[in-house]
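wait is this the right file?? whatever heres the structure
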């Protein structure tokens, strides 16, 4: 059974940084494509970043240059490094298995204060 568990969210001031983690079980992240998405209050869930099994990455324009997606195969964990955070980055962040099915984590809250 596939399980994705996010962690690392919190309250941070604008300009600060956080590292989100998505620990997976039931699958090997090294052979799957993974993504991070976010949902702000009153808004639809939106794409943030993806990483393929081959290590290729893609970012939404509104986070490119500030966020970095990475993967640790030994820990079976995908990370999202958030730098230069803005108040508009406030959202619940979810990791998502892209390769098959419809698996999402429970989300982790990121709140950026001004």
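ok assuming it is, sequence goes like this
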């Amino acid at each position: 059974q596939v399980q994705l568990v996010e962690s690392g969210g919190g309250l941070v001031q604008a300009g600060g940084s956080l590292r989100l983690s998505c620990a997976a079980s039931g699958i090997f992240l090294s052979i799957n494509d993974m993504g991070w998405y976010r949902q702000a209050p009153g808004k639809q869930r939106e794409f943030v970043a993806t990483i393929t099994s081959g290590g290729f990455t893609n970012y939404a324009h509104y986070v490119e240059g500030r966020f970095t997606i990475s993967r640790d195969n030994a820990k079976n964990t995908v990370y999202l490094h958030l730098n230069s955070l803005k108040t508009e980055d406030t959202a619940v962040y979810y990791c998502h298995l892209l390769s098959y099915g419809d698996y999402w984590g429970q989300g982790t809250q990121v709140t950026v204060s001004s």
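The chain has no helices and ten strands. so i think its the right one actually
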